[in-house]
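Progress report, Aim 2. The chain analyzed during this reporting quarter is listed below.
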Amino acid sequence: MRILHQDRFKGEIKLQVEIADDLWHLYNIIRPGDLVFSPTYRRDETKTDKIRAERAEKKKMTLGIRVEKLEFHEFDNRLRILGVIEDGLKDIGSYHTLAMEEGEWIAIIKQHWTDTDLDRVRRSVEDSKKPMIIFVALEQDEAVVAALRQYGIKRLAEIAGPTGGKMYEQKESGDFYGEIIAKVKQAAVEGVPIVILGPGFAKETLQAEGKRREPELFKRSFIFHTGQAGMTGIHELMKRGLGAEVLKDSRVAEEINLVEKVLEEIAKEELATYGPKQVRQAADAGAVELLLVLDTKVREANMEPVMKAVEQSRGRVIVVSEHHEGGKKLESLGGMAALLRYKMPA
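Predicted structure tokens for the chain:
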């Protein structure tokens, strides 16, 4: 993401969407009630002397939408913003949906930008400069290629060797490692780290083949041993926090580690609490050092006071994605949990 313009008096920040992960950040920055401007297409229904209006072609225009609802579609990397047209050449008061994609700009006007929102904007600018990570989790006869995105880990391909099942893609030539390398090449960009993991020796063979066939691509490849392959093995690696030189800057790794830290404190019945009621009580008392909130909870109207109370007491708020292992565990805790400065009375 790139900041194009900022007007603190109006409460406006104009942003350029540069990569798919920026849409995920916008999904967490924009709230119902915000006013957003962006280029869009809308049909110009022209009236004639006929009973029905002629259905004209869609025209590109810039509209201002008062947001009512947001939808993030991770599989096709699209963000849909539904609301009422409040600013534009026509159709004021009508509903319209902005379909945000890479390469477009959006201006967001809020009555109040929270510290959490501003931190998300800052982080989205920083994250766009960092390469993502490609994972290859494999055994002798099957492999999964996945990408670490800012909102979680996305499976990209499944490949089988000569003995693999029908659910996997398979080349007649039987070039198992060549197929994996081809999939990695499709997904990777220059300088991207490639993490190769699994329980057996196939990972070493893949790295050797990768360096032989695509030396530049596999120049930054790392090998890690895990008990299982597939997506389970990738989540195992992330939870263990291995490969600090590769994963230390990833947002997903940070979120998973923080959720695990909260779970450890809860198990010890020490400096942690969870659940909406308990977290709100701790926030009102100024006891929250770190608040973890599931991204789906952030858009609930009653979350704003809680986050504001934590920020005013100099606590830190982290929005956790629902799309990875840490998010699933936080969801089981009611969607919010906190590390505390001191133990709250029972």
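The radius of gyration is 23 Å. The chain has three domains: 2-127, 135-249, 254-340. These observations will guide the mutagenesis work planned for the next reporting period.
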